[in-house]
Amino acid sequence: MLINLLHTPEKLFVVVALALAVTSCGSSATPIVCNLPSSSSTTCTCGQGTAACPVMPGPEFLYAYSLTGQILAFGIDRNSGALTTIGSVPGPSSTAGLTAVNNQFLFASDGSQSRLYGYSINQTTGALTALQGSPFSTGTLTAPAGLASPPNSSLLYAADIAAVDAFTVSSTGVPSPIAGSPFPSGSSISLAADPSGEFLYAPDADSGGVIAFSIGSTGALTEVPNSPFTIPGETNTLPYGIVYTGLFVYTTLSQTNQIAAFSILSTTGGLTLVPNSPVPAGTNPTAIVFANESPNGFLYVLNEGMFGNNRNMSAYSVDSSSGALTPLSDSPFAIVGFSMAIDSPYYLGQYLYVASPTGIQAFSIDSTSGVLTPLSGSPFAASEGVLLTLVQIPPP
């Protein structure tokens, strides 16, 4: 029997946005990015000094799935972080996955009907238009849940029943199964893609650890040696949310109320448990995001999600060398929510957005302490929004 993931406390998970570390130049209100690949020989000297050309990123948009069955679209003001309503389009009746492919197309999973809803993203306004042929079937006996797509690729992955569904997305937005899909996996309802496009990670309720896949040239998945990577002495962890920071993988362990941290072997994608991991979190941690707002970065975790009497947010600083987590002062924060999104890595994670019962809460992130300060106008109206993803249009 298929499960409505957003209405079942034991199966709650929200797909998280991945944050990618970059370095910005100058101190203007609208930063100029300095750490992007370029064929030019021009050198931009900023921070540690990165050979690249200054680039002005394009507009940024936030999308929210609503329990009303709508996909809500918002524009983000880069100077203030404030949200402006763009509009909405019909979506699935329930979903556990919302992500963009190559900043051009937005997809929402529909596990109850074995399909994917797809939309084109207007590169200037952020408005959504249903793709021709949407919703797209994912095949019989499938129940796509969490979605992930490596940046700047045409690949789309969906956590499914003991498998991962893999698709290539055409220039018109049509997803087609990759040869060999679905690829055997454990019991996962969430995924995290390596920003380089080399690896894919899935928390596994069967082993209580994390399954790691290498991504082939066609997008096909191969489980890496020694996967799944488990936690010694832990037999009842039930990992849910997962996030990849570039050097480390973190997953929430909902039944033991912890966060597990793994370092990554760059050559194979294999994982090694970070010393003194896992660390305590709140009750039933679910959604998790990473903000590279400081030299080390911060990790934010929602506890109890949509249910329970102990809903709050755990927050940690991340040691960039070891991956170790240290709780921030005053953590846990009195912030209640269902899912989160961090603004574009072009801006080093300046703002945090939380889908909550009162709308979308928006916060600025203190780059030194990680403390969250509500933005003017927050919370922003979002009727029953529960699932967030953020899209940064690339520089022109």
Give a verbal description of the structure.
β29 (339-342) and β30 (351-356) form a beta hairpin. Helix content is 0%, strand content 41%. It has no helices and 33 strands. The chain has strands spanning 24-25, 32-33, 60-66, 70-76, 83-90, 98-101, 105-110, 115-121, 128-130, 136-137, 147-148, 155-160, 163-169, 175-177, 183-184, 192-193, 199-204, 209-215, 221-223, 239-244, 248-253, 258-264, 271-273, 279-280, 285-291, 298-303, 312-318, 325-327, 339-342, 351-356, 359-365, 372-374, 385-392. The chain has 396 residues and is mainly β. The strands form eight sheets. Strands 6, 7, 8, 9 and 10 form a five-stranded antiparallel β-sheet that branches. Strands 11, 12, 13, 14 and 15 form a five-stranded antiparallel β-sheet that branches.
Number of strands: 33
**Class of secondary structure makeup:** mainly beta
Distance between the termini: 47 Å
- Low-pLDDT stretches: 1-53
**Helical run tally:** 0
| Biggest sheet features | 5 strands, antiparallel
Quote the beta fraction: 35-45%
Multimer state: single chain
Evaluate the radius of gyration: 19 Å
**Overall geometric form:** globular
The chain-level mean pLDDT equals: 84
